[in-house]
Design goal:
The structure holds two protein chains of two kinds. Chain A is built from 15 helices and two strands. By secondary structure, chain A is mainly alpha-helical. Chain A has helices spanning 12-36, 41-50, 56-81, 89-104, 115-139, 145-165, 200-217, 219-229, 231-236, 241-268, 279-289, 294-318, 324-339, 341-344, 357-365, and strands at 2-6, 345-349. In chain A, 68% of the residues lie in helices and 3% in strands. Chain A has a two-stranded antiparallel sheet with strand order 1-2. Chain A has a single domain (11-349), classed as ABC transporter involved in vitamin B12 uptake, BtuC (Orthogonal Bundle). Chain B has helices at residues 3-32, 40-58, 61-85, 90-108, 135-139, 143-161, 163-173, 175-180, 185-211, 223-233, 238-252, 254-260, 267-270, 273-286, 289-295. The relative contact order of chain B is 0.21. The chains are: A mainly alpha, B mainly alpha. Chain B: GO terms for molecular function: transmembrane transporter activity.
């Protein structure tokens, strides 16, 4: 008989172990899933998780995929720490991509040294603008940020579609819904020859360092944390809630916007309808899996990048639908939330005792907490 | 605008609003019991694909919608388990449900992408359907539209006049008190979540079997999220959710209206309308937080366990 018993103090060990357990359970489920699909599970898992990064080029591609996820996730982690449920990184990323493209297409035939920086700045501004709208609606109009940011994701996608079908469409593009190819002066420099690994990696490293400093060393970061955990205590201490919520949303918007700009001016090199396969949503899972900590997020982000690559690899090599990526993402979050129960509760295995079995069976079958 | 166009707009408004009405109705009952399930979008998608596949192979609407409802119930149980039993944050668990179900639906439906089935036929009531302007909208719809009306009436009576409805509300307001009164809080919440899952599944299948009888990835296009906003709009009252769903149905078919007025607006900008309308509605309603809180179930989204 298994029952859950509330812990007096949250378990630190399980705080670290539960993401690992969640990943293991996801792999195990993947193993069963592949077997059910008639694949050799170990071969399929190899194709999914090892083959994509078997060589240096694969590793560089993994980093390319991980960059936008991480940029979004660092920002989301700040929001979630402040208990601001920003689901809008996807829309902020898309708007960053659109704004960056609007500027980049001005520089198609120019070799100005300002082309690339201005493109990136436009992307950041686009993300900030989109996040600022969400902040305004949350703080001034008092609307629920979950619904607002999700609606704004759909609106951003439609703005992107409108842009590639309309104002930003390449006039010489044979009527394809895509912008002109960006000029070389706009594109982010590649860090290593023969790869697509671009300057975005440096931005990612800076973002990680800064968000770590913000969370663990700054007073503002401390205030954010207090606000997230106990809003009334934050109010008592006189922290400016409006300022803090705006700050985390804008930082998230800036990072997501940069991620969008980095995609269009990096590996893609133009604006197309599919600039993101849901990086902004994946970043939500990454933020949770990484325990809202920059280092944890970095590891979780690499895993998420690998899942994206594995999905593509499974499609090519095994003929499985690419959507398997989404299943792995969902399973991971599901298992993480389930495993997190171990942080707050202790699992007790009770021996089936004849004397009190009659009144014990009904209550101990259900893992209910008795506090 | 001529009469025929107005007739068609009314007809299309109701058809477009029906899936929203079904999901929102399910979510209201779920939220009345104190559980916030943000997984509606994912459950709709799974319902859409399960209903489509079942219909594709069986050619029976009963099996199609039945499979969709059952799928909605089963996946909602996964949510209920982590949100109610394992005490995870309901917001996070709902997001997890949507992410998982969206992935699952795309995976299961990959082989059916773009395929079509026969659409759910209209059950026209001769005579009444001939009434000018409103006849077609009210009496020439399909069985699911009529079912949605029956469900609204039943839900209204359930909450207003039935002991069980009172029990659901009590559990949503104060589970500890409800539990002390001898109400099985957990079971009631499980049932409410499952009911929401069944309706979300049917709503999804309405899209893939009646509204546009085909399956494409992500075909719900955010309707599950809009339905969540509708619940706020209706301030947790079933009669108002009906009004809201049809208002949104109307907003979604603005292209028909624009056409009738001779306007030519870019399709992608028109496609934003339902989302913009949702935002607008959220602003208007949220201006008075006090009033809002008056109707919101007190324990909504708060984890609860016996013995607290």
């Amino acid at each position: 008989m298994i029952r859950l018993e509330a812990r007096v103090q949250h378990s630190t060990v399980w705080g670290y172990s539960s993401p690992l357990l969640a990943v293991l359970l996801t792999l195990l489920t993947g193993y069963i899933l592949f077997a059910a699909l008639g694949q050799s599970p170990s071969e399929a898992l190899y194709t999914f998780f090892i083959a994509p990064i078997a060589d240096w080029y694969g590793i560089s591609e993994l980093l390319v995929k991980t960059i936008p996820i991480l940029l979004c996730a660092y920002g989301l982690a700040l929001c979630f720490r402040a208990s601001v449920w920003n689901i809008g990184a996807e829309g902020q990323l898309l708007m960053g991509g659109v704004a960056a493209s609007a500027v980049a297409t001005l520089f198609v035939h120019s070799d100005s040294i300002w082309a690339m920086p201005l493109t990136l700045l436009a992307g950041i501004a686009g993300g900030i603008g989109w996040a600022a709208l969400a902040a305004f609606m949350k703080l001034r109009l008092n609307t629920n940020e979950i619904l607002v940011t999700i609606m704004m994701n759909y609106i951003a996608l439609n703005i992107l579609l409108w842009a590639v079908h309309g104002p930003l469409k390449d006039p010489d593009g044979f009527n394809f819904p895509e912008s002109a190819l960006f000029g070389d002066s706009t594109l982010l420099p590649v860090l290593f020859a023969d790869t697509r690994l671009h300057l975005g990696l440096v931005f990612c490293a800076i973002a990680m360092a800064l968000s770590w400093l913000f969370i663990s060393k700054s007073f503002l970061g401390f205030q954010t944390q207090v606000l997230g955990q106990d809003p009334s205590a934050a109010k008592m201490a006189g922290f400016n809630q409006t300022k803090l919520v705006t700050l985390v949303l804008l930082v998230c918007g800036a990072l997501a916007g940069l991620a969008g700009a980095g995609e269009v001016a990096g590996p893609i090199g133009q604006l197309v309808p599919q600039i993101s396969p849901g990086y902004g949503y994946a970043a939500i899972i990454v933020a949770f899996l990484g325990r809202l900590h920059p280092v944890g997020i970095t590891l979780a982000g690499l895993l998420m990048g690998l899942i994206y690559m594995g999905g593509e690899m499974a499609q090519i090599e095994l003929g499985l639908p690419n959507a398997i990526t989404g299943i792995f993402q969902g399973l991971m979050l599901f298992f993480l939330l389930s495993c997190d129960v171990l942080i707050r509760y202790r699992v007790r295995f009770k021996r089936f005792d004849k004397s009190n079995s009659a009144d014990n069976t009904s209550s101990s079958l259900a893992p209910q907490a008795q506090e | 605008m001529d009469i025929e166009l107005i007739t068609n707009i009314l007809y299309a408004t109701i058809r477009t609003g029906t899936p929203l009405l079904l999901v929102a109705l399910g979510e209201i009952i779920c939220e009345k019991s104190g559980v916030l399930n943000l997984g509606q979008e994912g459950m709709m998608l799974l319902g859409a694909v399960a209903g489509f596949i079942a219909m594709y192979h069986s050619d029976s609407f009963l099996i199609g919608f039945g499979a969709a409802a059952l799928t909605g119930v089963l996946i909602s149980l996964a949510f209920a388990f982590i949100a109610l039993h394992l005490n995870a944050s309901q917001v996070a668990a709902g997001l997890a449900l949507t992410i998982l179900a969206t992935g699952l639906s795309a995976f299961i439906g990959a082989d059916y992408e773009g395929k079509t089935v026969t659409a759910l036929p209209a059950l026209t009531i001769d005579g009444l359907a001939a009434i000018p302007v409103i006849g077609k909208a009210l009496f020439a719809q399909d069985a699911i539209v009529y079912l949605s009306w029956v469900l609204v009436i039943l839900a209204y009576l359930f909450f207003k006049h039935h002991r069980a409805g009172l029990a659901v509300r009590a559990v949503g307001e104060n589970p500890s008190v409800a539990s002390n009164l001898g109400l099985p809080v957990m079971s009631i919440r499980y049932l409410a979540v499952m009911f929401g899952g069944a309706l979300a599944g049917i709503a999804g299948a309405y899209l893939s079997l009646a509204y546009t009888p085909l399956w494409t990835e992500n075909m719900t296009a955010g309707r599950g999220w809009i339905a969540l906003a509708l619940v706020v709009f209706a301030s947790w009252r079933v009669e108002r959710v009906m009004l809201g769903a049809y208002l949104f149905g109307f907003a979604s078919i603005m292209h028909l209206v624009a056409q009738g007025l001779g306007l030519s607006v870019d399709g992608n900008l028109l496609a934003m309308m339902p989302y913009l309308a949702t935002l607008a509605v959220l602003f208007i309603l949220s201006r008075d937080p006090q009033k809002q809180r008056l109707f919101e179930p007190m324990s909504l989204a708060k984890p609860w366990h016996k013995g607290h």
